[in-house]
UniProtKB/TrEMBL annotation:
Organism: Symploca sp. SIO1C4
Enzyme class: hydrolase
Keyword Membrane attached: no
Xref: InterPro entries: LMW-PTP, Ptyr_pPase, Ptyr_pPase_sf, Tyr_phospatase_low_mol_wt
Annotated catalytic residues: C10, R16, D127
Residue ranges constituting the Phosphotyrosine protein phosphatase I domain according to the UniProt record: 4-153
Protein name: protein-tyrosine-phosphatase
Listed CDD domains: LMWPTP (cd16343)
EC numbers, comma separated: 3.1.3.48
Recorded catalytic activity of this chain's protein: O-phospho-L-tyrosyl-[protein] + H2O = L-tyrosyl-[protein] + phosphate
Residues spanning the membrane: none
Superkingdom assignment: Bacteria
Length: 164
C-alpha cells in the first residue's frame, strides 16, 4: 500500500505551513508511522520561492522542540493528484487553492487546518508575518493541537482501510 500524503499550504510557505509540516512529521515519527505518512508544504504565492523557514518562526518552533526544515515552493495543480489531503491554514489560502480546481474535482481533498484542533476555537491559523513573537508562539500552539487531531483522524480513517 502506498503512503498517505499530506500537504500543508499557507501564503508564503515560510511560516505556518512549514511549521505544520515539521510538527506533523514529529508526531508521525513519535507514532512510528514515518513509512506510512508523508508530509510536505507549499505556498499559494511565489513570494519566497526557495527560501528557508522564517527565522522568527524557527525560534518559536525550537522553543517547543521542533526544528524547521525545508525550502519554500509554490502550490501547483499537480498537487491535487499527488496528495491525499491538502490542509489550508486560512480561508484565503483555501480559496486560492480551489481557484486552481476549475472542475471542482478535488473539493473533498481540501480542508481548513483548524477543523482538526480540539483545544482551540480559532477557525484559521493567523498570519504571523507582520506581528511580534507572541503571534509566532500562538501559531505553534494552535498547530500542535490541530496536527494532533489530524493525526488521530488519519489513523482512524486509513487504519480502517488497511493503509497504515
Ligand atoms: P506564511 O506567512 O503564509 O505563514 O508563510 C507569510 C509569509 C510571507 C508573507 C506573508 C505571510 N509576505 O507577505 O511576504
Amino acid at each position: 500500500m502506498s503512503s498517505y500524503k499530506l500537504l500543508f499550504v499557507c501564503l508564503g510557505n515560510i511560516c505556518r505551513s512549514p511549521s505544520a509540516e515539521n510538527i506533523m512529521n514529529h508526531l508521525v515519527e513519535q507514532a512510528g508511522l514515518s513509512d506510512s505518512i508523508i508530509c510536505d508544504s507549499a505556498g499559494t504565492s511565489s513570494y519566497h520561492l526557495g527560501s528557508p523557514p522564517d527565522r522568527r518562526m524557527a525560534v518559536a518552533a525550537k522553543g517547543r522542540g521542533i526544528i524547521l526544515k525545508g525550502r519554500a515552493r509554490q502550490f501547483q495543480k499537480s498537487d491535487f493528484e499527488e496528495f491525499d489531503l491538502i490542509l489550508a491554514m486560512d480561508r484565503e489560502n483555501y480559496q486560492d487553492i480551489l481557484r486552481l480546481d476549475s472542475g471542482m474535482n478535488y473539493l473533498d481533498k481540501v480542508r481548513l487546518m483548524c477543523e482538526f484542533a480540539s483545544h482551540h476555537s480559532e477557525q484559521e491559523v493567523p498570519d504571523p508575518y507582520y506581528g511580534g513573537s507572541e503571534g509566532f508562539n500562538r501559531v505553534i500552539d494552535l498547530l500542535l493541537d490541530a496536527c494532533d487531531g489530524l493525526l488521530q483522524q488519519v489513523i482512524k480513517t486509513e487504519d480502517l482501510k488497511g493503509r497504515l
